[in-house]
From TrEMBL:
The lineage of its organism: Bacteria, Pseudomonadati, Pseudomonadota, Alphaproteobacteria, Rhodobacterales. It comes from Tropicibacter oceani. This is Cell division protein FtsA. Signal peptide: none annotated. SUPFAM superfamilies: Actin-like ATPase domain. Self-interacts. Interacts with FtsZ. GO terms for biological process: cell division. Its main location: membrane. The gene is ftsA. It holds the Pfam family FtsA. Cell division protein that is involved in the assembly of the Z ring. May serve as a membrane anchor for the Z ring.
Length: 442
């Protein structure tokens, strides 16, 4: 496990350098929009506040915000480098202009990239009377890393549970007395090329990448309230090109996955079904969309409009019931795929099965009722937590990833347990697998 933290170590050094300057940028690279927030830190390192204070908001304030239409991103992954670079530059420059300050370091999040979750376990004997940082470091390094395949890299590796002798469920075992320390860890791997492309694109924009996070993870951190994170809940982040699924319990993410479908696919279905451009289909979906048809919807006619020059073609109308008939099958398909992911993760075994829908596509009217029928759980619509200085326009569900990334920047949990291990205490078997992309690209 030692090598898995090298990426986070290098990025933490950059993050600390940025925080010493007082500003850092947040970049949410999505399939439909790219959001950039500029944070100003008040000089105190929030990581000193205590363990696991992910939902805390102290330590920073949003001083700049901008969004732009995403270009060159499909399914949450970069497909056209130059277009994505131009969109990122546009968003960052607009946020810098609002903040009135130049930003060199960004922390980025992305969806897609075929995430896979692994559960790891490690166990060591405690050397002294009390558990100290060295014992925690040794138990983390003793976790058996599975062969997660060529071309994949570790994005998050976090301990989710410690046990000391027969006592399990410990958040922080340091200072306690015992003989045998064991640990359960959650590791999330993603497609290496997706990370490399994003890192390369950020570097082409003359920015330093000071952190990476999965959108599913940070959306859950922003949209789930503290009780839901503690008792067990799933966050469904419905974006434009991908839908992220994350499960939390005891304030830790224990599972993450992604469905390669989102709101843009609903828009595409409307575009093909009504033979209208994507921009018109997006407008119709936003103003008139829904998933539950009533008797009134047969009589409510929607003017499609157009600028083809053909008077008859441009004056077409369609009933709202027909529009719902186009939208509902795709929304059902997305939710069915989400249910498959939740069943595979064993979500029904958690003490609480709350499901929170967030993301831009979650704003379709009636979606929570349809999700309750398909997922069979308590479902609510989630909005991100309020953070200081956030503009009113950036408080909707579509900004859950960006707000969660702000909290991640202030309280990065990946590094809580990253302690140096003396060479003579390294485990006997060396771990050959290392996170190479960071060394290769920086």
């Amino acid at each position: 496990m030692i090598e898995l933290y090298e990426t986070q170590r290098a990025m933490r050094n950059m993050r600390k350098a940025a925080m010493q300057r007082g500003v850092i940028a947040i970049l949410d690279v999505g399939s439909s929009k790219i959001a950039c927030l500029v944070l100003r830190f008040d000089g105190t390192d929030p990581s000193d506040e205590g363990l696991g204070s992910l939902a805390g908001q102290s330590g920073f304030r949003v001083i700049g915000a901008a969004t732009t239409r995403s270009r060159g991103v499909r399914f949450g992954e970069i497909h056209a480098m130059s277009e994505t670079e131009r969109a990122i530059r546009t968003a960052v420059q607009a946020a810098q202009k609002m903040a009135g300050i130049r930003v060199d370091h960004v922390i980025a999040s992305f969806s897609g990239a075929d995430p896979r979750s692994y559960g790891l376990a490690g166990r060591v004997e405690v050397h002294g009377v009390n558990v100290d940082e060295q014992d925690v470091a040794r138990v983390l390094s003793s976790c058996d890393v599975p062969d997660f395949g060529h071309g994949r890299e570790v994005l998050h590796a976090q301990p989710v549970n410690f046990a000391l002798d027969h006592r399990s469920g410990l958040i922080d075992p340091r200072g306690q007395i015992g003989n045998e320390l064991s640990c359960d860890m959650h590791m999330l791997t993603v497609d290496a090329q997706a990370i490399q492309n994003l890192a390369h694109c950020v570097r082409r924009c003359d920015l330093e990448l000071a952190g990476l996070a999965s959108s599913a993870y940070v959306s859950g951190a922003a949209a789930l309230v503290e009780d839901e994170q503690e008792l067990g809940a799933a966050c469904i982040d419905m974006g434009g090109g991908a839908t992220g699924v994350s499960i939390f319990i005891k304030k830790h993410m224990i599972y993450a996955d992604a469905v390669r479908m989102g709101g843009d696919h609903v828009t595409s279905d409307i575009s093909m079904g009504l033979s209208v451009p994507m921009a018109t289909a997006e407008r119709i979906k936003t103003f008139y969309g829904g998933v539950h048809a009533t008797g009134m919807d047969d009589r409510e006619m929607i003017e499609i409009g157009g600028d083809t020059g053909d008077w008859e073609h441009d004056r077409r109308t369609v009933s709202r019931a027909e529009l719902i008939g186009i939208m509902r099958p795709r929304v059902e398909e997305i939710l069915e795929e989400v249910r498959v992911r939740l069943d595979a993760a064993g979500f029904d075994h958690l003490p609480s099965q709350q499901i929170v829908l967030t993301g831009g596509a979650s704003q379709i009217p009636g979606l929570d009722g349809l999700a309750t029928k398909i997922l069979g759980q308590q479902v609510r619509l989630g909005r991100p937590l309020r953070v200081h200085g956030l503009p009113q326009a950036a408080t909707g569900p579509g900004f859950a990833s960006a707000v969660g990334l702000c909290l991640f920047a202030a309280h990065p949990q990946d590094e809580w347990w990253d302690f140096e291990i003396p060479v003579d205490r390294y485990p006997a078997r060396s771990l050959k697998r290392a996170v190479q992309w960071f060394r290769d690209n920086w």
